[in-house]
Write a structure and sequence with these properties.
The protein is of the alpha/beta class and 205 residues long. It has helices at residues 4-18, 29-33, 53-60, 72-84, 118-131, 162-168, and strands at residues 43-47, 64-69, 90-93, 106-112, 132-143, 173-186, 190-202. The protein is 30% helix and 30% strand. 41% of the residues are buried.
């Protein structure tokens, strides 16, 4: 008999195995818009990375990238996408809510639509914050609390708001924190209007 975490993992494994590029193979717009802040040689972490679109984008900029996901099918596609683009990435199969996050090991952490309920969100965000080295940047986009539009979770349990993110990432300097409606075109999984929240924060410690 499988537990809730195992069945959730199996569900995503099946989705990624069924069809390629569920969320497309192009980088997230919010992440791409901050590419000018990055430089070759930086160490980047992409938790909940799925099929690798953001990890491969960062690797194409010359960053040393580690992609983490709990679905092996997704990471296999990420490795294949990297090879097709002439870059390489590191991959780790792990459940983010239970993973032992490296401490002060990354210059960039990109959390793109990694939606979790409160009991898993808080340890995940604390792990992501701890993983940032001094001077490091956190780039986050997620579905925001409010009306459920074409994209995103139907309920509010795994949606975020500004107060939650300020609390979860206390100690980081907020460079930008905005929310509103966006038109997403990221594969078949994210297509249409969505309420989103975007955070850019820096570890100045």
């Amino acid at each position: 008999m499988t537990g809730p975490g195992e069945s959730w993992q199996q569900r995503w494994q099946a989705r990624y195995a069924a069809a390629a590029w569920l969320f497309g193979d192009a980088p997230n717009d919010w992440l791409a818009s901050n590419a000018w802040r990055l430089r070759p040689g930086l160490r980047a972490l992409c938790p909940g990375e799925g099929e690798g679109r953001n990890a491969v984008f960062l690797a194409s900029l010359g960053l040393d990238v580690t992609a983490v996901d709990f679905a092996p099918a997704a990471l296999a596609r990420a490795t294949s996408l990297a090879a097709s683009r002439g870059v390489s990435i590191n991959t780790v199969t792990a459940d983010l809510a239970r993973w032992t996050w490296p401490v002060a090991a990354f210059d960039v952490v990109a959390l793109v639509f990694v939606q979790m309920t409160a009991d898993e969100r808080v340890p995940m965000h604390r792990g992501a914050r701890a993983a940032l080295a001094p001077g490091g940047l956190l780039v986050l986009e997620a579905f925001a609390k409010g009306e459920a539009l074409a994209c995103g979770p139907r309920g509010d349990a795994s949606r975020y708001n500004a107060a939650m993110l300020r609390e979860d990432f206390a100690g980081l300097t907020i460079v930008s924190l905005t929310s509103g409606t966006a038109l997403l075109a990221e594969g078949e999984g994210h297509r249409g209007e969505a309420n989103v929240i975007r955070l850019l924060a820096r570890h100045d410690g």
